[in-house]
Amino acid sequence: MIKSGRVWGAAVVLLLLGSLLSGCGAAPVPQNWPGLSVADNVVYAISGSPQKVYMLDAETGVQKATFMPTGTFRGQLYYWSPVTVGGETAFVGFASPQDKLFGLYAFDPATGQELWHAAADNLILGAPAYADGVVYFGSSSGRVYAVDTTTHNVKPGWSFQAGEAIWGSPLVIGDLVYVATMDHSLYCFKAETGAVEWEFQAGGAMAAQPSPKDGTLYQGAFDGKVYAVERDSGQQASGFDFQAQNWIWSEVLVDGARLYVTSMDGKLYTLDAATGKVLSNPYQTQADDYIRAAPAKVGDLVVIATASGQVVALSSESGQVVGSPWTSGLTVGKSILTNPVVSGERVYVILASGQVQSFEVLKGLLAPGWAFAPSESQ
Amino acid sequence: MGIGDIFSTFILQPMLNALLWLYSVLGSQFWLAIIVFTILIRLLMTPLMLPQQRAAKKMQDLQPQLKELQKKYGKDRERMAQEQMKLYKEAGASPMSGCLPMLVQMPIWIGLWQSINQALGHQPLQLLGLSQNMYGPLRQMISADVPLNRFFLGMDLSLEPSVLGGLTYLLPITVGFTMWLQSKMATPSGADPQAQSMNQSMTVMMPLMFGFFSLNFSTGLSLYFIVSNIIGIITQGFISGWQGLLFWKNMNLKSLGGLFGGSRSAQSAGGDSRSRAGRGETSSTSAALDVAEGKVGGTGSGVQRKKKRRRKR
Q: Considering only alpha carbons, which residue of chain A is nearest residue B289?
């Protein structure tokens, strides 16, 4: 009797195990890092469980408002992109995996009140870009959207479909829109019509927004290269060459004649913007650490945040580490994969746990300021 | 070094890089990489799998002797179990020999599932793992190809049938069917009713479970299961013969009742399993496990208990 129970017990345990493992396989949980942005002295952080957009005072860290949409959803709602503010409206990409709903919410940045939303065909990972009453964004299906903020509809003519996902934020300069894609191409569109002006084919996937400097766009790629592309023609700028030892996932930081580039090889490179030549010994993280997030410049410091959760400040002149690296006291969710953002003399990072940490430049050093972590009940 | 690091270093990274290398030499076709990888894994597993398949053949060969024992000691369950154990020992057969390869394969399934998720990741966190788990020389070769070609016959190998829908539901069905067929070929026909009842339970339960897995895991993993099962069917065919493939000839729908409380034959030989099934018992599986573990319950035969109950009524 006991033995027969064992067989059935084993079968039930196996089925339960199977259910649990299957749950892992189909879990509709975010596979992206939390979004962080700052505009008009407000820090927009995507945090908490269930996820919300928290609007924090950039100086004090005091919570000013939150954004939660009014719709009802079968499961949890996730915000996949950082928030962008433009035309007195905030925009954020959302997904309700159980409803298979994806799209963009527009809300009031002062109150967090929902204004309108536009549907998309897949996840929106890159921050939307706003210019002249139009919000531009790409989806994980590779489609580029240009939504008129007055009509809330896609602008006529805009129906571009790339061969792979779009993870980076579009860049709008004048009447042109630049979008890097995972299909190894950087596209330039006419903002008005959506017509493709040119296409530049790189040697690897590109997951970040292009960085402009004068007539050149700098774009890191998964083949470890930084490409310098002429904005007018889409041709590769001659005489520029740089190769890292692993993927370049994030945006290139342009600072005058210098470029700062972080790589998944764990290094921060300082490059000559004209040639791509490495100007000083790259900063190297500890073994097994890497840098997904883009570098940020605050005052005379270049700030990097590493996957192990360290925040390091380096002198933009000498490339030497200034002060001691900051690490959170967390043991779980301490990694930093989101780009740090800068407002005035402050820089902000968000940990994988959703905790926001501010830093301020004091006497040439990076000093930790306020921290914000939402409680479950908020 | 935590258990996660050990798993990553010794299981995940070698498997991931093997798949990536195969991908690079097989014309950037991930489905082909999975198939060749499965064949290689089965080759590596041969020292474990072949004894299991030979043991199944031995079990089949022992059936006449087991029937004799059944006739001789059918009423004395304790003696019957002892004699069966003795027979198995002498013949070098083990009714539980299938468990070890199954256990050994579990880290492979988990590693393969994670490898597919990372290699074919279509969300940022999945690809982070890929960048960190690739070996140096392969990184140079593969990085320019990311995101990798994850499609096979229009099907995304990184997504689950429960997400893809449509014809992809055929995959879990095929996984379950090929696993059932493989088990069927390895299961001794005409075995002693008690052991047969247990075999029937496992023959049905495992394919159901793996079909359920496949429904909710990436279709790439289903491809591995299907190819692995087909290889298992072929090797079992060479060892035990191909008559098991003609499963419809031996189909006995009533025998499926063994899953839910013992087969008819088990009832006649082993006791009133239907009445006990209602209380969550099956004498057949119990007895088979007793035999496998070298233990006996010592409660007398099912027939004796049946008679006692009738007397009570």
A: A3
- For residue A272, what are the CA distances in angstroms to A119, A265, A279, A291, A318? 42, 20, 6, 20, 14
The b/e string for A289-300 (b: 16+ C-beta within 10 A; e otherwise) is ebbbbbbbbbbe
Closest CA to A295 of A265, A339, A334: A339
pLDDT tens-digit series, residues B191-236: 556 666 666 777 788 899 999 989 989 999 999 999 999 998 998 8
Q: Least CA distance to B259: which residue of chain A?
A: A8
Q: Please judge whether B113 and A205 are an interchain contact, meaning their C-beta atoms are less than 8 angstroms apart.
A: no
Distance of CA A274 to the CA centre of its chain: 26
The phi-psi region of residue A219 (left if phi > 0; otherwise alpha if psi is between -120 and 50; otherwise beta) is beta
With contact defined as beta carbons under 8 Å apart, do A337 and B128 qualify? yes
Mean pLDDT of B260-283: 38
Q: Which residue of B has its CA nearest to A14?
A: B209
Name the percent of chain B lying above pLDDT 90: 34
- Asked if the C-beta of B113 comes within 8 angstroms of chain A's C-beta atoms, the answer is yes
Q: Which of A2, A4, A181, A306 is the best residue to mutate to test the B interface, defined by the most B CB atoms within 10 Å of its own CB?
A: A4
Q: pLDDT band for position B88 (50/70/90)? A: confident
Helix (H) or strand (E) holding A364: none
pTM of this structure: 0.80
Amino acid identity at A161: Q
What is the tens place of the pLDDT at every residue in B133-181? Answer: 999 889 988 999 999 999 999 999 988 998 888 999 999 999 999 999 9
Rounded mean pLDDT for each run of 10 residues along chain A, 378 residues in total: 51 54 48 93 93 96 93 84 95 90 95 96 96 97 97 92 96 97 97 96 98 97 98 97 97 97 97 97 93 97 97 95 94 94 97 96 95 75
Å from A269 to nearest chain B CA?
Answer: 18
Closest CA to A273 of A240, A308, A250: A240
Q: Is the pLDDT of residue B69 over 70?
A: yes
- State ipTM: 0.86
CA dihedral (A39, A208, A220, A178) positive or negative: negative
Question: Residue A121: how many CA atoms within 13 Å on its side-chain side?
Answer: 13
Between B84 and B192, residue with greater pLDDT: B84
List A256's β-bridge partners, or say none.
none
Q: How many helices (H) and strands (E) does chain A have?
A: 1, 31
Please name every residue paired with B152 in a beta bridge, in sequence order, or none if there are none.
B155
Going from the C-alpha of B70 to that of each of B77, B96, B257, the distances in angstroms are 9, 20, 21
Would you call B123 and A14 a contact, using CB atoms and an 8 Å cutoff?
no
What pLDDT, on a 0 to 100 scale, did the predictor assign at position B293? 39
CB-based contacts of B305: which residues, under 8 Å, 6+ apart? B271, B272, B299
Instruction: Verify whether the Cβ–Cβ distance A15 to B147 is below 8 Å.
Output: no
CA distance to partner chain B, nearest, from residue A7 (Å): 7
A78: number of CA atoms within 13 Å, CB side? Answer: 23
Q: What is the CA radius of gyration of chain A?
A: 22
Number of Cβ within 10 Å of residue A65's Cβ equals 17
The label of the residue with tokens 């829908």 reads B165
Q: Tokens 């191909």 belong to which residue?
A: B242
Interface test with A, best of B1, B286, B291, B293 (most A CBs within 10 A): B286
- CB within 8 Å: A11 and B201: yes
Side-chain-side CA neighbours of B201 within 13 Å: the count stands at 29
